[in-house]
Amino acid sequence: MVQRIIIFIVLAVLLNGWHPAGNDDVSELERCSDLDVIYEVKEGDNLYEISAHYGSYLFWESIYVANADILNDPNLIFPGQQIRIPYNIAYYQQNELAMSDVLENPFCKLSELPYRQVQNRFITRYDLAFLENKANAERHQEKEEAEKKEQERMAELHAEELQRETRVNQRESNQEQVQRESERQMLIEIDGMVHDETRSKVGRDFYDVFYSHWQSPPEAGNFTIRVDEQPSPNMGTTIMVKVNQTETFKMRLQPRYEMIQEAGKYAVHQTYMHLKNNPQGTLIY
Questions:
Q1: Which of 14, 144, 196, 263 is the most buried (most CB within 10 A)?
Q2: CATH number for the domain whose boundaries are 2-126
Q3: How far apart are CA 159 and CA 166, in angstroms?
Q4: DSSP secondary structure letter of residue 19
Q5: CATH architecture of 192-277
Q6: What is the rounded CA–CA span in Å between residue 139 and residue 23?
Q7: φ and ψ at residue 225, rounded to 5 degrees
Q8: Of 278, 202, 199, which is closest to residue 236 (Cα–Cα)?
Q9: What is the pLDDT of residues 97-140, one digit of tens each?
Q10: Over the stretch 41-50, which tens digit does the pLDDT of each residue have?
Q11: pTM for this one?
Q12: Surface-to-core class of residue 16, CB atoms within 10 Å of its CB (0-12 exposed, 13-18 middle, 19+ buried)
């Protein structure tokens, strides 16, 4: 039996030789897939001839290892049996793989094959300890890859959570900013208002002149202006301008428009200078 195996190996080396290295661009998926081929044994077949059919007599041990659950003796196979041909062996010629690569790594996943049922007395290239170590290495690598994928998945989830929190915080910040701006606009609309509390035509004319010429200092804030009036029968009317509680202008006016216009402009100047020179207690927006 041993002599027969040696003869087959020598013939394989002499007749077939070692195939040169294949295409380096063959992807890992093409070199190692779980799409093993199922071969149905025919009359007169043996593992050596089946191996030669797929490219080399040297593949017979790998085919035996892949089918140790149904082959108690690699020399005993029967017509109709369906045996598994490892993918790298089945497509060795088609994918132009290197002989050394296939012999070193003929199985996609040894850990999924019945290597524990291998009978060491029938093989020379492998033994149970070697197969066990190789399977354990595969399982360890698969575990590391699974842990790495899980870490990457958790990192992605964490990144998504951070992005979601950032969006929520940004949205809340924008809402707060909009609310503050709205409140500020409301304060601005109220702040700096000029109230008309006049009662006569002279008073209303004065207010119109004052209002049409009024422009507050840029740094002023948190103030209101009130234009008030105290009519005096037969003596005209007294006009007062107050900034908050401070009086900035007071004058008795007659119903003469030139006088009213000049007084209104003067009141604007006095009030402007008061706000510019007394910024205490004002708010700058």
A1: 263
A2: 3.10.350.10
A3: 10
A4: P
A5: 2-Layer Sandwich (3.30)
A6: 28
A7: -115, 135
A8: 202
A9: 787 777 777 776 676 677 677 777 777 767 666 677 777 777 78
A10: 999 999 999 9
A11: 0.39
A12: middle
